[in-house]
Amino acid sequence: MRAALAAALAAALTAALASSCAAFGEGDDDEAMPSMQTTSGLVVFYDSTGPMSFVSMTPRDVPAGARIIPKVQGVSCQRGLSIPTTASINATDVSGVYGNGGFAKSLAKIMKAHPDVAGIYDVRVDLELFSILGFYRSTCTIVTARAFALAGAPVQPSAPTTP
Q: Taking the model in full, what pTM does it have?
């Protein structure tokens, strides 16, 4: 009797946990994972933009006869600085954040490097986080995609993009 009750309880617990677990990024929704620089303590300055969501084309949407550009990339960053005001575990600090780390800035850098681009597809977005002991933080949005230029558009030499 106890063994059957324990087995039933274990099965119910396993089913309850399994139904609430899903792989990160799973699903067909369009929800984004915004990443804005965090601040703490006394915020002296905050002027920052971060990525929200971006709907991209697929290879099927590329116009017939378009010239394919295999890889384009744009990087935009937010940066933050935090200075502790005391040397205790519960220290108060003064912090500030600046920078445009959003999609618009990354896409503008792609268009500047490749003025002939008419559209992008197969877009991958990566967030690069960097921190030095919590004093200095950097969050960069890296947009990498395939692009296309319309037929008849002049071929532009590739220019490297910088953050």
A: 0.64
